[in-house]
Design a protein that fits this description.
Largest sheet: 7 strands, mixed
CATH class: Alpha Beta
Helix content: 25-40%
Order of helices and strands: EEHEEEHEHEHEHEH
Mean pLDDT: 95
Radius of gyration: 19 Å
Structural class: alpha/beta
Oligomer: single chain
CATH architecture: 3-Layer(aba) Sandwich
Strand order of the largest sheet: 1-3-2-6-7-8-9
Distance between the termini: 74 Å
């Protein structure tokens, strides 16, 4: 080997470094006066503001909707337009991604969710896995968990949802024409939860991959 030439025998070593960064959180409602809160977790390629547009029908004077945005943003092409979307995680460096996600949501909870009379968690699509992981790991009492058009992470101890479901069944909602997350996948998750002793309410609705207005209206009260 000539002097100055790269030596392919030297391994590349990758380490992790914890850093501070800014995260974006969208709010719908009055953080001071609201007696209850909904934590709303968006799907892949969405934004915090975008998911709250879908949940606007749930807004009430005494309810605060809190939508954190995934920490990974990227450009995407949609209908010929270049837009910015966000993601909660990828399979790369998975354990650190999940740890960052949990810490982020605990910080959101400490700032906007604590001290409320009632707390619901709603996850849509990719946000379903994020919601399940946070609910399973947080010490904060959750009054209702609603999983829209997404799947439950296979590695979770589903028994952690029993105390939550004793107050209100875990709600799973999926569109009959959903091609991204099929009714069969969601039904399989419902079966897994029931086998773990978790009360479940499974609802198939008309439509595809989205939030069903009638179901949302019923939950919003």
């Amino acid at each position: 080997m000539s002097d100055g030439a790269p030596d392919d025998r030297v391994p590349i070593h990758v380490e992790s470094l914890v850093v501070s960064r800014h995260a974006r959180v969208a709010l719908l409602g009055d953080p001071v006066r609201a007696s209850e809160a909904w934590l709303v977790l968006h799907g892949y390629g969405m934004t915090a503001r975008g998911i709250l547009h879908w949940f606007r029908a749930a807004a009430r004077a005494d309810r605060l909707l809190v939508a954190p945005e995934g920490l990974s943003r990227f450009y995407q092409e949609r209908r010929g337009l270049r837009t910015v979307g966000a993601s909660w995680m990828t399979r790369d460096d998975r354990d650190h991604e999940i740890a960052d996600q949990q810490g982020y949501l605990e910080a959101v909870a400490a700032r906007w969710l604590g001290g409320r009379r009632r707390l619901e968690v709603h996850g849509f699509s990719q946000g379903v896995a994020t919601a399940c992981r946070w609910v399973a790991g947080t010490p904060i009492p959750i009054d209702r968990l609603v999983l829209w058009a997404g799947t439950v992470p296979p590695e979770l101890d589903l028994g952690r949802f029993r105390s939550l479901a004793a107050r209100d069944p875990v709600r799973l909602v999926v569109g009959r024409d959903d091609r991204l997350v099929t009714p069969a996948q969601v039904a399989a998750d419902a079966g897994r939860l029931r086998e773990a002793g978790v009360a479940v309410e499974l609802r198939e609705v008309e439509g595809g991959h989205g939030i069903d207005p009638a179901t949302l209206a019923g939950l919003a009260g």
